[in-house]
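One example given next:
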Amino acid sequence: MQRLRTTVARLRPITATQTAKSQSQARPTAVGGALRTFEPMRSYTASVSAEPFLNGTSSNYVEEMYYAWLENPRSVHKSWDIFFRNANTGASPGAAYQSPPPLGGAALGLANAQVMVRAQPNVEKLVEDHLAVQSLVRAYQVRGHHIAKLDPLDIGVIDFDESPVMLGLKKVGFYGLDESDLDKVFRLPTSTFIGGSESVLPLREIISRLEMAYCQSIGVEFMFINDLEQCQWIRQKFERPGVMQFTLEEKRTLLTRMVRSTKFEEFLQRKWSSEKRFGLEGCESLIPALKTIIDKSSMNGVESIIMGMPHRGRLNVLANVIRKELDQIFCQFDSKLEAADEGSGDVKYHLGMWHRRINRVTDRNITLSLMANPSHLEAVDPVVQGKTKAEQFYCGDTEGKRVMSILIHGDAAFAGQGVVYETFHLSDLPSYTTHGTVHVVVNNQIGFTTDPRVARSSSYPTDVAKVVNAPIFHVNADDPEAVMYVCNVAAEWRATFHKDVVVDLVCYRRNGHNEMDEPMFTQPLMYKQIKKQKGVLQKYSEKLLAEGAVSRQDYEEEIAKYDKICEEAHARSKDKKILHIKHWLDSPWPGFFNVDGQPKTMTSLSTGLPEEELVHIGYIASSVPVEDFTIHRGLSRILKGRAVMVGQRVCDWALGEYMAFGSLLKEGTHIRLSGQDVERGTFSHRHHVLHDQKIDRRICIPMNHVSPNQAPYTVCNSSLSEYGVLGFELGFAMASPNALVLWEAQFGDFHNTAQCIIDQFICPGQAKWVRQNGIVLLLPHGMEGMIFSAEEFAVRQLYDCNWIIVNCSTPANYFHVLRRQILQPFRKPLIVFTPKSLLRHPEAKSSFDDMLPGTHFQRLIPDSGPVCEKPEGVKRIVFCTGKVYYELTRERNNRGNDDTVAITRIEQLSPFPFDQVKVETDRYPNADLVWCQEEHKNQGYYDYVKPRLRTTVDRTRPVWYAGRGPAAAPATGNKAAHLVELQRFLDTAFNLDAFTEQS
């Protein structure tokens, strides 16, 4: 009862509001939070109150109850709810009612009343009108962006569905209202904030405020979000009257940023009119947009921001956001200058940068990093996320409050490239989340020469973001103040909810795809409009001059000041000594390459371990170091098997990996292993995460129990993605050289869908950007094709190679190569072709003797059998790599060729072990040279190995081929056919009289 009286009391001030408008007007009635005048209800409630079952209850009280019911049907007793619902069905007052079973002392003694009354006809209309206003409010929140003034060109390239948007004063009829209702007053529902401090407004004013909130230069998409708190937060930011107001100082700062953004492009065009630079003309507001996000984020405590973007506007971002020295940018335009350090370099609009500086708005230090990115546009997205995650990890930022990422996208690429979707899907995964990214889409409304209507199936290029419930703020890029406001909100959203958010800068591209391109060929109407379009700086400066916010003199002085800065930097850029690619590093590793100020030596330390350490790690791998933890019975057998191997001083593939990981963790090296099903291992061999069979989600990671002061071990199953996840791990590895970061493909050929990361980042990264990286790729099967390696005949062969590729045949060699990856004095990507059948092969085991101090990774493993006794009698050396070695030795034993055929394993394919291969060929002077592989001829290592073998012997001996013939598919798919193929090439390898083909 008290709740009813409270509700009624809250409604009473509305009567006063209405009465102020007209003393003779009847009291308003609430329906679903709205108000309508209510005169007929007085006579209705009077007749109702006369009914005997109401025991003389006054009409005023019935009316109060009716108001409460209209506001919220659950606020009144169930009997009143039934009464008023039946009244709306058409029964007359007091026509019929039945006494329900006693309800145990219900309020007001109405528990026995079940009233069926017939209301007057206008009651239903009252309800419908009030609900109509709520529907109208919701319609603006859902579809207001459809009619927002987003396009600076006003040519409407966005293709919405064919149904009209029923919004506006003249469309109220769609909701059952008419123009006579526009001046009637309604209570505002709790799902809107357009009233500010007012709770009631005329319908005309409601519509006006909704249009100001949702239909001007900003269009907001958020109603698909299923979190009420988040929706309410967004409504407040855009619906409250007067939210988009700026101080005089903020407007002047915005103008200064617009001047720098615009005049930078004009300076480049003036100096290098025939050079491609992928300028920002048409979206100059991107610079103040990014600076606003950075300012607000810095204010919220962010200390480091990692950014990624395509080529359009990159030079401007480097100059005016990252604050790269202008002379370093300008000297990139001089084709006569050569870099003063190593590396082939890259085009200027692909380069990155790292810079720590003071944020002048907040007076706080902030580190900004723009990642180098090739022409694959969105390929950098997961790389940025991985580097952000790593920086958060190393500084203990578990909530993303100190480190964050900003990604800048083009509209066509954002909609068209699948890695965008893959990256979004990492955003909330525990081992991949960066706790929110601000995405800024430079929406050119065109992709190179392709119109949106044939470039995407969605209305907006940003629709992909809805998959993770990210709010999307569309904004007209020719309204800098709207851009600034939206970016402030985006930064606050990220700081508040730590989730992704998208800012869609709807702009245009004043020039073609680049400054040399002619866009009129394909978009004549768009570019006719663009030629007539005033620049955004001109429009905004005119606005501020008209407001009196700045004077003409101040404006012109600001332009002259920046022009002078550019001219002075241009003069300095002609100095041939300043061009250093290392100045463009996006991920520096201070202190790593030097010891006490001196460069590290190129000698490698032993990767072996004392036996007691091997035993200790082996027993950790064989145990469950958590009490009362129930593991699967099958897993118990596996762990017992490991313990038996430790007692026998041998290890298999999984235990060898455990030894390498455990020892590095003990030495303080963080290890991160990621990929599909890596926790257990695709082939059920690893079992680095144990699951309690009785308690859901209770796990144990024995590797984190190796030593009290060890580094943390991160092992995490990834989403079913290769492109995005490999990019993520590459970015993680960029952050620090003191971590072993590994990505494992579920199957070796699954890396095909991540080929862009391999070809554009891993393979050429050091040559293009002087950026070393120690990422490790584990590729089961090793059936991949071409190998793209750069070779140099030098002592520092490993250092000078672009990456290292190995195909280990023993657990010990796998153990050593993993440890070498950290202990060597530099970092190179490591590609490991890992086996499947060797994981449990009885012969693929290594003794602890092969892992003790003084032992190393073996680039080549020579034959140590009977052939060593009389090498001059050996008729053939079969070179091979990987698991085919075991099939060759079995076949040799069956044939009795132990003393005439030597089998040599090349464990490191790149850089190629020329020195050790020469020792082997010289040892057997009368032997033919054969390369044997199980892969098809056009898919394995043959084309790579053949010229290197011939070079080693100075072309004095031919190199023969034994293996499968060329094929389009990597495997037959039929086991019987597979075995026939296997036997055929084994016959070829050991046939000392003939070959299928001479090389």
